Predict the structure.
Amino acid sequence: MNLHEYQSKRIFAQYGIPIPRGEVASTPTEAREIAGKLGGKVVVKSQVLVGGRGKAGGIKLAVDKDDAEEKAKAILGMDIKGLTVKRVLVDEAADIKDEIYLGLVIDRARRRVVMMGSSEGGVDIEEVAATMPDKIVKVAIDPCIGFRSYQAMDLATALGIPKELTRSFGQIASGLYTAFVENDASLAEINPLVVTGDGKLLAVDGKMSIDDNALYRHKALADLRDPSEEDPYEVEARRFDLSYVKLDGNIGCMVNGAGLSMATMDMIKLYGGAPANFLDIGGGATAERVAAALRIILSDQNVKTVLINIFGGITRCDEVARGIVAALDEVGAAVPMVVRLVGTNEAEGRAILADAKMDPATTLAEAAQKAVAASKS
Amino acid sequence: MSILVNKNTRLIVQGITGREGMFHAEQMIAYGTNVVGGVTPGKGGQWSVGVPVFDSVRDAVRATEANTSIIYVPAAFSPDAIMEAVDAGIELVICITEGIPTLDMVKVRAYVDQSDSRLIGPNCPGLITPGQAKVGIMPGHIHIPGNVGVVSRSGTLTYEVVAALTARGIGQSTAVGIGGDPIIGSTFIDILRLFEEDPETEQVVMIGEIGGTDEEEAAAFIREQMSKPVTGFIAGQTAPPGKRMGHAGAIISGGKGTAAEKVQVLEAAGVRMAKQPTDIAELVAANIGR
């Protein structure tokens, strides 16, 4: 789960990381009031969960409160990569002398949390990694020992942090690591960490992602989830414990298992079709969950045909078939469906589906071919 | 021969009185796996599916000389269950549980690494040596004994491939699901090494997916240290970047971890890559002239 900039920065502040003074506004009038309170120049920043807000015109400098109101008016309601801006963060403008990148991720290959720093702050770190990989310094952190101050000093030296700021940098780096671990983050980054004109460090922009698997022990963070920021189908899928990702094609897919789901999508592509979604009903899915899955797939207007591919192990084909029938009773089948049921209780499953008008397939290749043909007719 | 599990496996089931644990303990016993007991704290002294239940792994090991443990406990308790098994001296620990927080696994893996135990999973289907021991949740009947080693990050996709091999009369030495999480106990390299050393395994099928660099590291190992032929497949060629495809580990980030990249590196290492999963059995058959 991704957090907004203002949410991430508030967490950072709890761990002693200095952030600019600022507040969130959802109307231009509120933005004006906040700017008035802050005094001087402010930055009006759209709060949407996508990158590239600045380039899209979603971040603007305002000279005073009148200007802040104008800028907020322009940004609120704006569409950035398909998301409508509903809130802006009004922050005191920083006097930027230098920009640094500081971030934490989980390095799978090293099986460690890794702190990354770069003197090239303010730009996308992926871009730095691609164009100037030697500008990124990495420090791996032992989970049993934690982040040590010598590691902070090493980073400070490598990043060229002025001597008088190394202590402050150490506190920020250590605070960021603690924030990462205590909130079960999968990403925490300050970009840029600014060296101000009066010689201080300031986390001007921040980003955090929380491990979905750990949300059960972070109730307050889980409550921050904003369903209106997410794809409505994905929200509905999560309610039923389904893994769903919306894609651009027109063949709806319902499969059990993540690997098989991906492979099924690949097969569709291989035969010249395009999947409308990734959907894994998971292991041991009940009829109810299957019905929900099918409802979600069919509510996508792009879907011209549905491919159901089930390899029963813990999942029972008869249970899946019952779910399909239940969903069809409710929403009706407006599009052709290709069904492949193999494994546990496949005969029972096929018998249940015998009356429903569905196109049966025995192999994955056959199923994919039939679905692609149906999607083009 | 085979790898990791066989007739000498003495298995305990952690979480044997839970719904999943009980169901699969029964299935494994029905397959012929030597299940010697189970563990559920607080239920020691009871019996479940015909085997004794113990309060702790230590008690179970003392009473049954178990050497392998399989874990079916909820994600919140799994890190503890894994460490308990390691601490009790279990040689092989298999964790089926899905949804363990990644930072927990960072610690668990560090703990396992400084022990003599081996961990498979989490978020995996387990492993099976056909005709000898099924230690997992896979449908046993689709497997037959033979000489092809299978290693995979996925569950059902592996069943698909194994079923296709079996349909052609090609048996498997051992099929191992290493799991779909970002941090797992055993990686491709660990299992490939065991297959390379196993005299009964003649060739290997490796099924990867998008995300991480495990397949790339495996490619280097295959090129430098494997003599046996490897056939591969990578799932997720159509996956969009930045989105998690079901498995917590299946995400393309920053342009890294794409299927195309993995396919290219594996091909360069001499792995014969299947375009679609159904081609795998054909490529394997070609290797043995069938």
Summary: Chain A has a mean pLDDT of 92. Chain A touches chain B through 54 residues (CB under 8 Å). Residues 231-376 of chain A form a domain with the Rossmann fold fold (CATH 3.40.50.261). Residues 62 and 68 of chain A are 5 Å apart (CA to CA).
